[in-house]
Amino acid sequence: NNRYPRAYQYPNWHRITMDHYAIHSAHSVMPTRWTSSRRHVPSSQRCAPALLQHKTARQAGHHKLVAQAALSETALKLHYFGFPGRAEASRLCLTVGSVPYEEVIYTRETWPEHKGQMPFGQVPVLEMEDGKMLAESLAIERYAAKLAGLYPEDPLKAALADQAAFLSDIWEVFAHTIYMPLAQKIAVRRELLVTKIAPKLQNLTKLLETSDEYVAGDKLSYGDIVVFVSLSSLISGILPGVPRDLLEDYPVLKAYRNRIASIPAIKEFYEKRGEGFRAAFKPDAA
């Protein structure tokens, strides 16, 4: 998002540490096998089996469009790094909705030569079949959710999904800590856990306690996916100073995160790519 400084927009981007990418770009260690700027994902891996709990006539028409799009090798291309970061909610929406997409993966080494090709010099960017590019993670999440049937048609339910997504954004809290020395960073973040994060998690608990099965009613929406990604990222270990057992003090949030992680399509997604920090996105061990 343009609201916060992007790590890779700075001239000294090569000095950026992992948690810089966590807040402004990404969350997990880049596998060494990615040596080029583009990784073509086999069609069998582009999306996990869909979780289609509620079929309607309109959704049936959407599935027809998806099936047609699947015939094209250039359907949707999601440009980002190999980490979860600000593209993860969009990945999950497309996966759950069985919307074909291809990932264009950049590394710290290959990103600079492609930065100028992006609309605002940053990623994530979603490239359409006709070459048009959509920037800004929030816009991409909503677009992906609509393609996947995960953005409620009812205006109030859509607002409830947005409310949960906005409330669960924890990265803005830590944005100013990224350039601090490690010791100072840890100390400041521990203070932020008490002054900023605890109230945010308490409010999110209240929201979930007063919601139906999901944040926007009785159906899974993109709001649930965004909350899941935020909570999982928070306990992934990407932010030094934030304990991995943080949700032990928030049983409602812990149970909710585990329930979303156990949805078949999401569970399968992380069974295939549960390395590094993404291990925290898996269901809790029994």
Automatic annotation (TrEMBL):
PROSITE patterns: GST_CTER (PS50405), GST_NTER (PS50404). Pfam families: GST_C_3 (PF14497), GST_N (PF02798). Residues 154-286 form the GST C-terminal domain. Residues 74-152 form the GST N-terminal domain. SUPFAM superfamilies: GST C-terminal domain-like (SSF47616), Thioredoxin-like (SSF52833). GO terms for biological process: glutathione metabolic process. GO terms for molecular function: glutathione transferase activity. This is Glutathione S-transferase. The lineage of its organism: Eukaryota, Viridiplantae, Chlorophyta, core chlorophytes, Chlorophyceae.
